[in-house]
Amino acid sequence: MPAKDIYHNTVRTALEKDGWTITNDPLPLKIGKRTLNVDLGAEKLFAAEKQGRKIAVEVKSFVSASPVHDLEEAVGQYIVYEDILERSEPERIIYRAIRAEVYAQIFSEPIGQVLLEKKRFKLIVFDSLKETVVRWID
Q: What does R_g of the chain's alpha carbons equal in angstroms?
């Protein structure tokens, strides 16, 4: 089994503290004859539900030497997963989970701001030490 992102369990705990029930860990994405092992690099997609709302969450640690490369990779993967989920589970919304420090660093810069303005992806910002959700960005 592929390795989980280093913050996978932290995000899972944060969501559970926020009242979410984890329903699939991981959440396999199937399209045609292919099943995506969403653990590309060190990431894992999992699913959660709360009050009839369904989400899929992909954790991204942003720990490489280039935060811009991490961002490019994160956006590309998000688009692929979102498009597949739209076909297979249209009621499930995908979110990218990132640390509060990453949010403050990347999304305070124009490169991050333009992605937020264009609503390129939905974010769950989490505190990695407190294991809590800090902010939801739709």
A: 14
Interatomic CA distance for residues 54 and 134, integer angstroms: 19
Q: How far apart are CA 69 and CA 75, in angstroms?
A: 10
- What the block records as the tokens of 18 is 């926020």
**Residue 62 main-chain phi, psi, to 5 deg:** 55, 60
Cα gap 54→69, rounded to integer Å? 29
Tell me the mean pLDDT in the region 11-29. Answer: 89
Altogether, the residues listed in the chain come to a count of: 138
pTM: 0.89
Which three-class secondary structure string do you get for 76-103? HHHHHHHHHHHHHCCCEEEEEEEEHHHH
Other CB atoms closer than 10 Å to residue 36's CB: what's the count?
Answer: 16
